[in-house]
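quick one
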Amino acid sequence: MVQLFKFLLKSTKSPARAHFRSNFLDTLRLTVRGGHGGNGLPKYGGVGGQGGCVYFVAKEGLTLRKLAQNLRDKRVQATSGEDSSKVSIFGRRGVDQRIEVPLGVQVYDEQQKLLADLNEHEASCIVAGGGTGGCTGNNFLGRPGESRTVHLDLKLIADVGLVGFPNAGKSTLLKAISNAKPKIAAYPFTTIRPQIGTVEYSDLRSISIADLPGLIEGAHANFGMGHKFLKHIERTRLLLFMVDIFGFQLSPRHPHRDCLSNIYALNKELELYDPTLLEKPCVLLLNKMDKEGAKQILQNLKPSIKDLSNGLPACPEELRPSRVLKFKHILPISAKNSARITQVKQQLRETLDELAAQHLVTDNQQLKEQLQQRVGVIGPKIT
Ligand SMILES: Nc1nc2c(ncn2[C@@H]2O[C@H](COP(=O)(O)OP(=O)(O)OP(=O)(O)O)[C@@H](O)[C@H]2O)c(=O)[nH]1
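structure w/ guanosine-5'-triphosphate:
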């Protein structure tokens, strides 16, 4: 009977459903409970052991799916503290529960309050404290440990975030530029989960690129896969925008948007989702330059693309951002033919290096100012 059920269930799975059933997991709910405090021994003034606590530690290379598989019932409980006894007046402390979570996880409580942002390897946080042991203060009755449901939200950490509407050629680029092996097809939404690729250089330097799929007009308001992937952009240092030089049409029901309108639409999506994203350095790739007529389109749009504020008056009202992006570099490319891919690699590296150098200068300046404040006017002169 069970076999028959399994067979029937299997046969109802369509290829389309199988395609959209993503393996990528970026949120997880867990119930965590600290251990109960052990009871005290009133006769001898004995104190019960404190309950163990539950804590998370960030580890590189882990995934939320793996964590979910390891914790099948999504519950974690630390052990109770030992009761005080004649032979052991001070009860032993309960054993803590150490849970390894993927790097980049943010931990929220039921009220959506951020408890911890674990974005460094080995960063840790206690999510459920153990109950205090029984003592004079609590009538020698051990207290229960903290108990709560926590929400783990994974935000990918990558150097570069690849942003573009479906079918722009993001996966093709990622494949040409990095070690990733994304799926490529001539229909939108081929990529249904973020892909991370590593770009390697001859001097062994490497940078990571995240392809963030599913972005469509209205994603900020959670249309399509909306927020699910937009949130990953927050932790990238550089935004790499990609548009099809011939524009994009989501479906026959939607209007065809030319290349410039698509740039404005991406600009607006990001602005509506989080305006601070527009402050990130960005590079623009105009793809599919190998196709006939591409050069002419580029020639016509060049002045508006170079300075987006030039084309704003002609931009449709619903796509008009209040603040326009300022691209550090604009590169016409053909991801399919790997044309100018070496330049893309070089520009990404240079821009990231410039950024790192800027950070170093500001960090040094801040350090100097702090030292100057501490040393005051009498101390040695800091140059
Ligand atoms: N002519 C031409 N076609 C390209 C180029 N780059 C990508 N394509 C084609 O455009 C289609 C979409 O490419 P993808 O790389 O899957 O696009 P995507 O942006 O990852 O699409 P989603 O997975 O829907 O997000 C495929 O048929 C590619 O072969 C290019 O430089 N020139």
